[in-house]
Design brief:
By secondary structure, the protein is α/β, with parallel strands linked by helices. It has helices at residues 10-24, 53-67, 315-318, 362-369; strands at residues 69-71, 91-96, 99-109, 116-118, 131-133, 138-141, 155-157, 162-166, 179-181, 186-190, 204-206, 211-215, 228-230, 235-237, 253-255, 277-279, 286-288, 301-303, 308-312, 325-327, 332-335, 345-347, 375-376, 382-383. The strands form four sheets. A twelve-stranded mixed sheet has the order 2-3-5-7-9-11-13-15-16-18-20-22, with helices on one face. It has a seven-stranded mixed sheet with strand order 1-4-6-8-10-12-14. It has a three-stranded parallel sheet with strand order 17-19-21, with no helix packed on it.
């Protein structure tokens, strides 16, 4: 039989009550804290309100845009109803960079929607937009000038649409723009040198497969600070200048295929030690392939196919440590080092390499050998043959 328990003292009961209240206290409603004497208020803990002037303006912009959309096969804009724009499909909101207490539209992504219609001038009301992705749709017309108010726009991708007209000049005045993708549209006219300028300082430019013209004689291209430049299927006038080496600190990918360039490849191209992809195919480059390309230690892909290049393929190129693809098809090279055989992807067909398979006919090679030799000028251009006395 257990001994009778001793009666609890008053101090013991008081201690138990204190412990009980300590455990219970976090579960009880807490009083509001007293105002802080600090002049800087604490950030709000509640979600940002979906009602403010910027979202009101965004509502007007989206409703006006929806009004000029003629087809939306995936119903991406079906829920663009009501004032809660942050709940719209493809619309992303965040705290405004100039006021963390205000919710604003920071991004729009309607990629691969096959939406047909236009880009309304009301888009300029989305002044805080940082990302606008509209690739693979069927938007017509051009980029509205009101987009000049998008001072925070960082990425603009309107590729693979039906946009047309001259290059939207306001794009060169957007201070935050780093990624510009206009490819596979119907823009035309001159691509202004400011696109490559250091004031705009793009990191990536995709302007291929439009009807742009680019003058290489202005030196605009080589002023660029971009890491990626793609101008494939664009009319480039002039010669590839020696100043191409000035892009050594930034350039990683250069695609100039089918641009109608008729020039030499300047040896200064070897300064591009960060370049990984070089595509100069389907042009009228002539002369020899510079041995200095062997200094481009980061190069993974080089394509100079379907030009008028001749001479030897420099062994220094085949010894590049990261080279995975060497394409010299459709030229008039007469020799290729055996060291090139180890390159994983190699295409040397339709040249004049003796005892090599799939080469040009003997007659074609003899006819080419009887042409006047190519002389390259200091500007990278092909000099006319000297006049016979």
């Amino acid at each position: 039989m257990l001994p009778p328990s001793k009666p609890r003292s008053a101090s013991t009961r008081a201690l138990q009550q204190i412990i009980f209240l300590a455990l219970l206290l976090p579960c009880l409603p807490q009083p509001l804290p007293s105002p802080s004497p600090s002049p800087t208020p604490a950030p709000p803990s509640l979600p940002l309100s979906p009602f403010n002037e910027r979202l009101d303006a965004a509502y007007i912009a989206f409703q006006a845009w929806k009004h000029v959309i003629t087809e939306d096969p995936k119903n991406l804009t079906a829920d663009w109803c009501g004032p809660f724009v942050c709940n719209y499909t493809g619309v992303f909101c965040a705290a405004a960079p100039d006021d963390p207490c205000i919710l604003t539209v920071a991004g729009v992504d309607l990629n691969h929607g096959r939406i047909a219609g236009e880009l309304t001038d009301h888009l300029g009301l989305l002044a805080d937009l940082a990302v606008l992705h509209l690739n693979s749709n069927r938007f017509q017309g051009t980029l509205p000038g009101s987009m000049q108010h998008m001072r925070l726009l960082y990425e603009l991708d309107v590729s693979n649409n039906l946009l047309s007209g001259a290059f939207p000049s306001f794009l060169t005045s957007l201070p935050s723009l780093k990624y510009l993708d206009l490819r596979f549209n119907d823009f035309d006219g001159q691509l202004p040198p400011a696109v490559f300028g250091r004031e705009l300082s793009l990191d990536a430019l995709f302007a291929n497969d439009n009807r742009f013209n680019v003058s290489l004689s202005t030196g605009g291209l080589t002023n660029s600070t971009a890491s990626v430049i793609v101008l494939a299927n664009t009319a480039l006038a002039g010669c590839l200048p020696p100043s191409i080496g000035d892009m050594a600190e930034t350039l990683v990918e250069l695609i100039l295929l089918n641009t109608s360039i008729g020039s030499c490849i300047p040896p200064e191209i070897g300064k591009l030690k960060k370049l990984k992809v070089l595509d100069l195919s389907h042009n009228d480059f002539a002369g020899e392939l510079p041995e200095s390309i062997g200094d481009m230690e980061s190069l993974e892909v080089i394509n100079v196919g379907y030009n008028m290049l001749s001479g030897e393929v420099p062994e220094s190129i085949c010894l590049l440590p990261h080279l995975k693809n060497l394409t010299v098809v459709g030229n008039y090279f007469c020799e290729e080092p055996v060291s090139c055989l180890h390159i994983p992807r190699r295409d040397d067909r339709m040249n004049c390499i003796p005892d090599w398979p799939h080469q040009r006919s003997h007659e074609q090679c003899i006819a080419f050998d009887h042409r006047p030799p190519v002389h390259c000028g200091a500007d990278g251009c092909i000099l006319p043959p000297p006049k016979r006395l």
